[in-house]
Design goal:
Layout: E1 2-10, H1 14-28, E2 33-38, H2 45-52, E3 57-60, H3 66-75, E4 80-86, E5 90-91, H4 97-106, E6 110-119, E7 122-126, E8 134-136, E9 142-144, E10 147-148, E11 151-152, E12 163-165, E13 172-176, H5 177-182, H6 195-205, E14 209-220, H7 231-248, H8 251-274, H9 279-295, H10 300-309, H11 323-329, H12 335-338
Parallel strand pairs: 1-2, 1-4, 2-3, 6-14
Antiparallel strand pairs: 4-13, 5-14, 6-7, 6-13, 8-9, 10-11, 12-14
Length: 347
């Protein structure tokens, strides 16, 4: 069994593989087995891999299972102590795996971690999808050290301490195979978006920890499959976020949070229409709420199991305030302003 398996999920991402895979292989192969799991691509990705990267393990999936179920099916075929879920549009750096492996070896109570993510197109800035580790607010809205809503900070070393977080980004996520399997993996019904937050939240409720290890740094392009502003992405984000809340919130908070989210979601829908003139996103939010109402009871068994087996009632990385209020009304647009006593989030 390998110590580390780096698994890249691909669906019609030939251009990304051509651009970034060589660096991944050259800078990772000494410490990990590299795999590409292909979601039935039709763009020549498989032929390219067979010709140019015969040393890379190729996992062939029979159709496009999406990010979540695609990884579930791929990782079921991989034997390793540590999995790394790596997006195909990530540029790794020399020795990027070393701090992650070292930290995980020294901290058996930690189930998963991520490196610091910077943006490929602006390398001094954090990257939107994960920055220096993820949190959620009282109502379920995600934010990061280094990114709150659309405000992305430059990386000036302000978040260079290893820190416990609620969620690690799916763009580059190291997780113990045992933890992945014991929590049930990613929820394949999500297809894509919010699936890593949901999984990490479930892991935290089981009493295990998630960290960002900023001694490791990678660069992420982002938006390769569904770019920001795509109504399909908006739909998935809202539907899946509501589903994640339904599964993981404690009983005494569920109804109150869902009532507030009803108000906030429709406020967001009208804001996109009236201020941004974006009918596509507005419609997507309405459709997401309708889809959530239609399918939420499919998750009743998941919710019952999570609530029964939770070891932590409320995770401390879920902020006790509204990020909407803090950002738009109190003008606190960075993590440091939200948490001036930052050391209580570090160790």
């Amino acid at each position: 069994m390998d110590k580390v398996a780096v698994v890249i999920l691909n669906w019609n991402g030939l251009k990304m593989l051509e651009k970034y895979l060589r660096t991944v292989v050259d800078l990772s192969a000494a410490q990990a087995k590299i795999y590409v799991a292909d979601n039935a691509s039709s763009d020549g990705s498989v032929a390219f891999l067979k010709e140019h990267f015969p040393e890379v393990g190729l996992i062939m999936l029979d159709r496009n299972w999406g990010f979540a179920e695609g990884y579930n099916k791929a990782l079921a075929q991989v034997e390793a102590e540590l999995f790394v879920l790596l997006n195909s549009d990530v540029e790794v750096t020399p020795q990027w795996l070393t701090p992650l492996i070292t930290f995980m070896d020294a901290h058996p109570e930690v189930a998963a971690c991520q490196p610091k993510l910077r943006a490929i197109n602006h390398k001094q800035a954090f990257e939107y999808a994960g920055a220096a580790g993820g949190f959620i607010d009282k109502w379920g809205y995600p934010f990061c050290r280094g990114r709150v809503f659309d405000d992305v900070e430059d990386d000036n070393g302000q978040y260079d301490t290893p820190t416990e977080v609620l969620w690690a980004t799916g763009a580059c996520l190291m997780i113990r195979a045992e933890a992945y399997r014991s929590c049930g993996g990613l929820d394949g019904r999500f297809f894509a978006h919010c699936e890593e937050i949901d999984m990490c939240w479930r892991i935290r409720l089981m009493g295990q920890k998630i960290y960002c290890i900023p001694d490791s740094c990678v660069y992420h392009l982002g938006g390769g499959t569904l770019p920001k502003g795509n109504p399909r992405k908006t739909f998935l984000n809202f539907r899946n976020n509501l589903t994640m809340l339904y599964k993981n919130l404690p009983d005494d908070e569920l109804h109150a949070v869902m009532r507030i989210r009803w108000c906030l979601d429709y406020l967001a829908a009208f804001q996109t229409l009236l201020l941004n003139r974006n009918w596509g996103d507005c419609k997507a939010i309405f459709q997401a709420r309708k889809a959530f109402r239609r399918w939420k009871h499919e998750f009743d068994a998941d919710r019952t199991s999570i609530q029964k087996n939770r070891k932590i009632k409320r995770v401390p990385e879920r902020a006790p305030f509204s990020i909407v209020w803090q950002y738009y009304f109190r003008k606190k647009k960075t993590f440091s302003l939200l948490f001036p006593d930052h050391q209580r989030h570090t160790s």
